Amino acid sequence: MPTQIPSGHKENSYQAIDSHTQQNNPGTKNRICQLFGIRYPVISGGMVWCSGWRLASAVSENGGLGLIGAGSMHPETLREHIRKCKEATEKPFGVNVPLMYPELETIANIIVEEKVPIVFTSAGNPKAWTPFFHEHGIKVAHVVASTKFARKCEEAGVDAIVAEGFEAGGHNGKEETTTMCLIPEVRRCTTLPLIAAGGIGSGAAMLASMGLGAEGVQIGTRFALTEESSASPAFKEFCTRLNEGDTLLLLKKVGPTRLARNRFFEQVQEAEDRGAGKEEIAALLGRGRAKKGIFEGDLENGELEIGQNVSQFKSILPVKTVMEELVSEYNRLLASLRPM
Amino acid sequence: MPTQIPSGHKENSYQAIDSHTQQNNPGTKNRICQLFGIRYPVISGGMVWCSGWRLASAVSENGGLGLIGAGSMHPETLREHIRKCKEATEKPFGVNVPLMYPELETIANIIVEEKVPIVFTSAGNPKAWTPFFHEHGIKVAHVVASTKFARKCEEAGVDAIVAEGFEAGGHNGKEETTTMCLIPEVRRCTTLPLIAAGGIGSGAAMLASMGLGAEGVQIGTRFALTEESSASPAFKEFCTRLNEGDTLLLLKKVGPTRLARNRFFEQVQEAEDRGAGKEEIAALLGRGRAKKGIFEGDLENGELEIGQNVSQFKSILPVKTVMEELVSEYNRLLASLRPM
């Protein structure tokens, strides 16, 4: 229920704290859990064609924070998903809003009307919309791939930062900074609550992220391949057969995107190898390729956006099992570490 | 002193153990420390033009394992560095041997004659030389960038595996698998002692690596920028001014290599953008560029091999300070983590 979340941005005052020392302060609850009113600092990414109400509500019901991905929805479809999500869970959930979205104002108003408590924004400047959401008592996290944009988040007054590395599926930063290198840099440049993303889908990677200075994780690929994900069964099954090296960051001239190897991938790679320009690549990409691949299951001609860690996941599990495995693996591995 | 290392491969029997659960078993000493007879499971990479006897002996003297990089040395130069290293420290140290080295047999014999206790091999098939080194009581670790080669290491009977991610400076795997994604995959496919490399230069990244399932770390960039590194002062100073995005993996058609942005980098990037073929790129690269850049300090025309985490390091420190910071940060951050 949205009202479980403390409303209003001004009521939250984060102390300026030493980077890296705060994240699991003894006696203090994890800041990401506090901010969003959740049990585990695990967020499911708002992935196009995967993150509908079923996935979001399942993640929230199991103690994480589920996000609905507005990027692949018409405004009224988003409203329907929000309503179904509220029916399916009383726990907090959020909506991911790409700030390049053509009908941004319409969906921002729907989010307010439907009393969604949390918004994750991405692909744009957080300054433009953070004040609007805050005025309506909505928490805002913004996704970045560099410290440059993390600083913009501070200026914009967001409540939390998601720092996403090169490993992540789909759209990606041009610096190619990996999660291992990005998280400590962002941790050093901001005192805001920090969520790591990119290559995280296991308790091991979650522990690594917390070691690097994050206070929570956003997980895409592992949740894209759950029973509750809206992706086509053919896409999910295809992904469980991928191996190391079967995703690469392509489309660098039009906007770096991590894709799985298929016929379309080979076409892009061939064009890029021979130095094709931005216009040719954009024409080859066309429109609607991600829907075709991920939602409709066209494994030859679709744009198959998925993260590099996909090769680790060989079965389609329910969200409940994924959450249990994440938490138990995290705790088991943490207990195995010893000081030097 | 080399004889501090238990000699002979057959004397070591590693139990087949559940992946991920062994690495810091209570009551058991870390396997990497045991294997090499060192205090901290921290290895300095055998980097061309950086890893001479000064760096290697300083790392070993301070509780890690220093490696001399044979890749940039004539055979008799290597012998000289080994002798000086033995004079400078009684602690164990090793030599990194790229298996593509033209005078491989000569340097393998020098390593045996000089009683070097540990060899790290890279860039080739570990089957060819592991038996030779083992016959002479030398421990062998092999560097890989994929599980495919990790399996070859098992077959070759190496004593430990270094799994190096996309973040690493210099030569790199074509799969572009990052450390965050690579370590759990390799951990799952082998029970051998596992050392993580690529993007590791802080206690935070070391903790992350151990969380991912590694039992030790190999650190390049952070040690390349120490006082004891043989790199030119101009190169080191240049590196401390690099920012995020200032290194990229280039030269993919001739052999993927992570380079820092300079005039040569821009030339390669321009050629690659317009689809230049393997021959043109190889001609542009020519020979001796890494020496020119790293050792001679030609910051315009040299090939500046350095890791992606270079942007985290803003000062040239002595090895002793680096080691102390690594260990204290690791311990501090580990103590701050809580179960979920």
UniProtKB/TrEMBL annotation, chains A, B:
<keyword id="KW-0503">Monooxygenase</keyword>
<keyword id="KW-0288">FMN</keyword>
<feature type="compositionally biased region" description="Polar residues">
    <location>
        <begin position="13"/>
        <end position="25"/>
    </location>
</feature>
<keyword id="KW-0560">Oxidoreductase</keyword>
<protein>
    <submittedName>
        <fullName>Nitronate monooxygenase</fullName>
    </submittedName>
</protein>
<dbReference type="InterPro" id="IPR013785">
    <property type="entry name" value="Aldolase_TIM"/>
</dbReference>
<dbReference type="GO" id="GO:0018580">
    <property type="term" value="F:nitronate monooxygenase activity"/>
</dbReference>
<keyword id="KW-0285">Flavoprotein</keyword>
<feature type="region of interest" description="Disordered">
    <location>
        <begin position="1"/>
        <end position="25"/>
    </location>
</feature>
<dbReference type="Pfam" id="PF03060">
    <property type="entry name" value="NMO"/>
</dbReference>
<dbReference type="InterPro" id="IPR004136">
    <property type="entry name" value="NMO"/>
</dbReference>
